[in-house]
């Protein structure tokens, strides 16, 4: 068992930490206030190779694995939860194509999203199919005459859905078979019949776009089927197992960022004639926060290392995400409390971190769904 990073991983951590502190941090407040997706930061991450982590270089990726991915996501989340979410969720697209796509599909799509500056999106959720993903009703019926899939339905809460060049849409190719009739179909931006609906106005994560996607007799060629016909539910579940490790890393990063702010603030803030870091009550808060962050971080790395070594990791990914998201909410809450009135003001980053932390308990599977997944694995 080795708890150490390799030299290359340490270098990546330092490079992303510098980028996060010098480039992302100064932008985080403005991104939150404007609610605009920072395309320039996405392009910077592309230039640095971060959007291609986990994909082989021959497909335009930058190599590396889920370990490198979570190193990058955590460092960025310390200063901007939105930008970290964009990176983490964007990489789901490449992970699905990399695992389930044909050689031709890999060559066609991966370079565009890994190093071409375009976003990829993952569209599973529907207005009436959230936690119960298997009740998705969007259809993709095959037209024998034209050899095309015809999509009809609406997807909602899709991260980057309105900006993405390619969207992986989970739709019923055989509606009577329910989850066994669900398939994964790639839809390209601009395809007739595919339109962007409501862009959500959220509590937090303002720099990460969340869109409704509408399919109205949207026709795509049969070559856009990703993976085997009828295996869409399994593809989505496999993708989510991996993606949840990314959200755990995002949650760890938000919590670690709030802890760093709290350490700095308690050393600088003088009350009762001394820095408040000398008060045992606050030291205990900091100790508890540090313990939670450290535990959440190692659970996240444990899940990633199981995935990288090809071992089963569904339970560990769910535990990591369930725990890290809880830690992110608890730690940002405590950090805001430590900052007192200042923490509540928008001049300080704490209230943003607190708002950004909350979604980690909801998206890519709620905490309650994670408990379902963990319990099923434990009871197996
Ligand atoms: N890996 C591979 N296959 C899996 C799997 C996994 N982790 N989990 C289930 N499956 C397979 C099962 O083996 C089963 O296959 P068979 O029919 O061949 O036996 C099939 O999938 C159906 O499984 P279940 O009976 O367990 O399915 P279920 O309907 O009970 O649902 C669930 C299981 C875990 C609750 C699932 O619905 C779920 O994860 N729900 C949450 C959905 C979610 O996380 N949504 C987030 C969307 S993405 C997002 O939030 C943000 C974004 O922008 C990306």
TrEMBL record:
Its cofactor is FAD. SUPFAM superfamilies: Acyl-CoA dehydrogenase C-terminal domain-like (SSF47203), Acyl-CoA dehydrogenase NM domain-like (SSF56645). Keywords: FAD, Flavoprotein, Oxidoreductase. The keyword Transmembrane does not apply. Gene3D superfamilies: Acyl-CoA dehydrogenase/oxidase, N-terminal domain, Butyryl-CoA Dehydrogenase, subunit A, domain 2, Butyryl-CoA Dehydrogenase, subunit A, domain 3. GO terms for molecular function: acryloyl-CoA reductase (NADH) activity; acyl-CoA dehydrogenase activity; flavin adenine dinucleotide binding. The keyword Flavoprotein applies. Pfam families: Acyl-CoA_dh_1, Acyl-CoA_dh_M, Acyl-CoA_dh_N. This is Acyl-CoA dehydrogenase. It comes from Lachnoanaerobaculum gingivalis.
């Amino acid at each position: 068992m080795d708890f150490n990073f390799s030299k290359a991983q340490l270098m990546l951590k330092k490079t992303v930490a510098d980028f996060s502190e010098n480039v992302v941090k100064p932008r985080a407040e403005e991104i939150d206030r404007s609610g605009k997706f920072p395309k320039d930061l996405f392009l910077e991450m592309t230039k640095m190779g971060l959007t291609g982590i986990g994909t082989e270089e021959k497909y335009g990726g930058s190599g590396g694995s889920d370990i490198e991915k979570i190193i990058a996501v955590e460092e960025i989340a310390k200063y901007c939860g939105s930008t970290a979410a964009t990176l983490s969720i964007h990489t789901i697209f490449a992970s699905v194509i990399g695992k389930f796509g044909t050689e031709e599909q890999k060559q066609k799509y991966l370079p565009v999203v890994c190093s071409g500056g375009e976003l990829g999106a993952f569209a599973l959720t529907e207005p009436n199919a959230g936690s119960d993903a298997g009740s998705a009703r969007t259809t993709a019926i095959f037209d024998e005459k034209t050899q095309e899939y015809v999509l009809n339905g609406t997807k909602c809460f899709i991260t980057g859905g309105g900006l993405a060049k390619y969207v992986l849409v989970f739709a019923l190719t055989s509606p009577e078979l329910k989850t066994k009739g669900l398939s994964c179909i790639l839809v390209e931006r601009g395809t007739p019949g595919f339109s962007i609906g409501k862009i959500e106005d959220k509590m937090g994560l303002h720099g990460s776009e969340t869109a409704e996607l509408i399919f109205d007799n949207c026709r795509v060629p049969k070559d856009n089927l990703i993976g085997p016909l009828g295996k869409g539910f399994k593809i989505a579940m496999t993708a989510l197992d991996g993606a949840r490790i990314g959200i755990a890393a995002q949650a760890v990063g938000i919590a670690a960022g709030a802890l760093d702010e709290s350490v700095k603030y308690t050393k600088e803030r003088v009350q009762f004639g001394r820095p408040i870091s000398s008060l045992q009550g606050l030291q205990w808060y900091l100790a508890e926060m540090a313990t939670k962050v450290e535990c959440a971080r190692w659970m996240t790395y444990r899940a990633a290392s199981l995935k990288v070594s090809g071992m089963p990791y569904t339970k560990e990914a769910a535990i990591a995400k369930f725990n890290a998201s809880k830690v992110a909410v608890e730690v940002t809450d405590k950090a805001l409390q430590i900052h007192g009135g200042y923490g509540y003001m928008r001049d300080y980053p704490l209230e943003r971190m607190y708002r950004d932390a909350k979604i980690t308990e909801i998206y890519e599977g709620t905490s309650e769904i994670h408990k379902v997944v963990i319990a099923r694995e434990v009871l197996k």
